[in-house]
Amino acid sequence: ALMPSLEACYNLMDFEAVARQVMKKTAWAYYSSGADDEITMRENHAAFHKIWFRPRILVDVEHIDMSTTMLGTKCSIPFYVTATALGKLGHPEGEVVLTRAAHQHNVVQMIPTLASCSFDEIVDAKQGDQVQWLQLYVNKDREITRKIVQHAEKRGCKGLFITVDAPQLGRREKDMRSKFSDPGSNVQSGGDNIDRSQGAARAISSFIDPALSWKDIPWFKSITNMPIVLKGVQCVEDVLRAVEAGCDGVVLSNHGGRQLETARSGIEVLAEVMPALRERGWEKRIEVFVDGGVRRATDIIKALCLGATGIGIGRPFLYAMSAYGLNGVDRAMQLLKDEMEMNMRLIGATTVAELNPSLIDTRGLLGG
Ligand code: FNR
User: Fold this and answer.
1) Could you list the residue ranges forming a coiled coil in this record (predicted)?
2) Most buried residue, 4, 108, 189, 284, by CB count within 10 Å?
3) If we measure between CA atoms, which residue out of 227, 226, 206, 228 comes closest to residue 217?
4) Which of 90, 104, 100, 165 shows the shortest CA–CA distance to 135?
């Protein structure tokens, strides 16, 4: 089939359609799969359609400022590249392509533990005062984990995102069927006696510690000064507990629908979490991030209206990278920025700080 030109991609879904055609089958299976029947994966995006805007008119919207602060660092726009494993499945250069695009747009990148490039390669690809965070899978051997964390801090990472929704990897059947055979990665999985017939995900994740618990949080605080964020929190009780444990942030996320099937969407959890934090006067004590199914700037704006600090985007940048390399990710980010500027104008908000719950109608989301 003829490869559509990059200029023919007008939104983030267009990159997915091209990637599906041009990617290797195993790579497509790994990136695109969700757990079980992929109900949560679909819901992640669908949930945004249950929120409607209540725009304000006759606001002077000539100048739009989309910049914001996440974990103490200034960013051009409140979305970030979330951690996704195995970048070289989609592009021979892997995660550094995302690093370069993130630099061009002053966007934060979260580096995955299970990157295809080495951690140092991804940090070395950083330019200027570009900001990176580390996503951490906690090893059964805590000395390995300590080294990873302290090395990341030494290399300038500005946040530690501990993944807490994956004590065991979810069942991604598309990925399993494609009978993954070559991760092409540097992953130190602790020996090679792993069963690759279970798909890419299982093959590389056998070191992850299912015994990780709240009791470990003080230890993380003792080994690093990076802000600590729990990635994969899914209900208000755990957000409150994270505040009490002294965490600096949470990501409301279900891992892109790849873990617990029929887990709720991050945006729905956000609508539950923010009022509970405000009720206690705790909304300044923790930064709340959200990811999953974000494909349009309107999705980003809805999350900001609800009170999110930052919004993670995973698959769309992988697809853009796989189909078109750096130019693809660059265009995907530019499209999102353009959409965001236009939609803030149409809503009647000139800064991120002006986005608030009165600009959205969440009855469809919360009413069932
Ligand atoms: C992920 N995600 C993920 N999360 C994590 O904490 N560690 C990881 O190694 C990975 N790997 C990974 C690989 C792939 C291919 C995908 C699609 C996702 C989850 C990721 O950080 C994020 O939660 C979701 O991708 C967000 O959903 P969207 O934007 O992909 O819909």
Assistant:
1) none
2) 108
3) 228
4) 165
Contact indicator for 67, 61 with CB cutoff of 8 Å:
no
pLDDT, average across residues 191-206:
57
Q: Angle at CA 315, nearest 5°, toward 90 and 107?
A: 100
Q: DSSP class of residue 167?
A: S
Q: Per residue in 278-326, pLDDT tens?
A: 999 999 999 999 999 999 999 999 999 999 999 999 999 999 999 999 9
DSSP character for 259? S
DSSP one-letter code for 116: S
Question: What pLDDT is recorded for position 198?
Answer: 58
Q: Give dist(CA 169, CA 256) in Å, integer.
A: 13
- Which residues are the active-site residues? 137, 165, 255
Per-residue pLDDT averaged across 131-141, rounded? 97
Structural contact between residues 35 and 260, judged by C-beta atoms closer than 8 angstroms: yes
Mind listing the pLDDT tens digit for each residue in 31-46? 999 999 999 999 999 9
Paired tokens of 306: 């609800």
DSSP, res 7? G
Which of 32, 98, 255 has most ligand 1 atoms within 8 Å of CB, for mutation?
255
Two structure tokens written together for 349 = 């908000």
From the CA of 255, how far away is ligand 1's center (Å)? 5
Beta carbons within 10 angstroms of residue 105's beta carbon: 18
Per-position b or e across 227-236, b if 16+ CB within 10 A of its CB: bbbbbbbbeb
Cα-to-centroid distance, 232 and ligand 1 (Å): 10
**Which element (helix H / strand E) includes 236?**
helix 236-244
Q: Hey, CA dihedral for 19, 24, 30, 34, is it positive or negative?
A: positive
DSSP result, 139-155: BSSHHHHHHHHHHHHHT
Instruction: Determine the atom of ligand 1 nearest the C-alpha atom of 231.
Output: 6
Closest CA to 161 of 256, 227, 259, 235: 227
The pLDDT tens digits for 237-257 are: 999 999 999 999 999 999 999
When pLDDT is cut at 50, 70 and 90, the band that residue 202 belongs to is: low
Q: Distances in Å between the alpha carbon of 113 and those of 208, 267, 303? A: 11, 25, 27
